[in-house]
Predict the structure.
Amino acid sequence: MNCQTAQECLLRRLDEALPSALARELEDHLRTCSACREEQRLLTESWDLLDDYPAPAPSADFTAQVLAKARSVAAKPAPARRFLVLRRLIRLAACVAILGLGIWSWQRWPGRGTPDEALIRDLDLYENLDLLENLDLLAELDLVSDWAKE
Ligand SMILES: [Zn+2]
């Protein structure tokens, strides 16, 4: 038995009798562990202090008050079953609508789509890449820009 289990057993022993095997293990541990013996001493002192304080007595009409409260709760009409079902259906419909909107948005998110779709979208660009590179090269030449001004 380790110290944590021993201290749990000490607490448990205050409320109830430990099973005999567990009680023997606890006693064996307490013989060898001074920290747990100290814990036991403090717990026993605290427990004994509680004996000095009398338990508060309930008021004379405590039982009558509890019964009256229980009767008032029981007397409240429960919401009609069909309204409960309707409320659940509305919640379910709202969940389905939110889920559907989420899926719809996710599918239309920019950049979404399969790699094939992106390839098809940019196919013209890939096919005319040589031409575009040559246009950039021409634009960089001063000759062409001077010619364009005229
Ligand atoms: Zn211990």
User: Anything to note?
Assistant: The chain is about 80% helix and 0% strand. The CA atoms of residues 48 and 69 lie 36 Å apart. The pocket of zinc ion is lined by residues 3, 6, 29, 33, 35-36 (CB under 6 Å).
